[in-house]
Amino acid sequence: MTALVIEHLEKTYTDAYTGDEVVAIGDVSFSVSEGEFVSVLGPSGCGKTTVLNTVAGFVRPTSGTVSVAGNQVSGPGPDRGVVFQNHALFPWKTVLGNVVFGLRMKGMGRAEREARGREYLSLVGLEGFERRYPHELSGGMRQRLGVARVLATEPAVMLMDEPFASIDAQTRRRLQEDLTRIFEERRPTVFFVTHDIDEAVFLSDRIVVLSGRPSSVREIVEVDLPRPRTWASAVDHPGFRATVAHVNGLLAEGEAEGTAADVE
Ligand code: ADP
Ligand code: MG
């Protein structure tokens, strides 16, 4: 079944200070199947966050539609879980408290939500940290907590906006491997936004490559890389290298066009 459908999405912002119109998204259409990992990839400022925020229901499209599990999105809802780049955790709640919060909102009883919370904390490698507070965790651990908190609610679509962008390179690779393992075990539906080509190829089943602003879909690339995936096996896999090279070419073309247009 199709978990997420985006049809002819367009978004024009009006700048709050100058009143100028900014066309952030020209025309974007794609869909994500249940249990599929799809990334949206493009340069900074091309409208990736706007696409994700429209799916989350934080931003209203200028035109076009977004549907999740067959229902048209008109605002935020518990069927979509968002993992933010900067965690957005509750600092006054414990690690376990952060994970069970969304479950309490869903009306789940205490014993059940604690069991579920512990299960997902152990899935992301945070077993034993239940009683700690977010400020006692490293950046990588906080991001694991952000992932556990969203996964625990078992949303129809998990939305991730450059969740590892501000994390050091070595930790980032470990988090990417963990996310891949979790994805392969649980098969959540994931809509992931990144500007990092290697990350997109390593994690995804398909990559939606956006052109520069106003963005449209340049190409949807299938990733030919068997699962289970680890970085050690991916880097030497011809499918990984070929896809990275192909996507690199698509983005370089987009940049060249952008430069030509800027000069005019
Ligand atoms: P990305 O996530 O790919 O970096 P964004 O979706 O954040 O891109 O932004 C796309 C474009 O829309 C940028 O030019 C940005 O400045 C503009 N933009 C984003 N949000 C707003 C807003 N609330 N008001 C005006 N312009 C915005
Ligand atoms: Mg962004």
TrEMBL record:
<dbReference type="InterPro" id="IPR017871">
    <property type="entry name" value="ABC_transporter-like_CS"/>
</dbReference>
<keyword id="KW-0813">Transport</keyword>
<dbReference type="InterPro" id="IPR003593">
    <property type="entry name" value="AAA+_ATPase"/>
</dbReference>
<dbReference type="InterPro" id="IPR003439">
    <property type="entry name" value="ABC_transporter-like_ATP-bd"/>
</dbReference>
<dbReference type="GO" id="GO:0016887">
    <property type="term" value="F:ATP hydrolysis activity"/>
</dbReference>
<dbReference type="InterPro" id="IPR027417">
    <property type="entry name" value="P-loop_NTPase"/>
</dbReference>
<keyword id="KW-0547">Nucleotide-binding</keyword>
<protein>
    <submittedName>
        <fullName>NitT/TauT family transport system ATP-binding protein</fullName>
    </submittedName>
</protein>
<feature type="domain" description="ABC transporter">
    <location>
        <begin position="4"/>
        <end position="237"/>
    </location>
</feature>
<keyword id="KW-0067">ATP-binding</keyword>
<dbReference type="Pfam" id="PF00005">
    <property type="entry name" value="ABC_tran"/>
</dbReference>
<dbReference type="InterPro" id="IPR050166">
    <property type="entry name" value="ABC_transporter_ATP-bind"/>
</dbReference>
<dbReference type="GO" id="GO:0005524">
    <property type="term" value="F:ATP binding"/>
</dbReference>
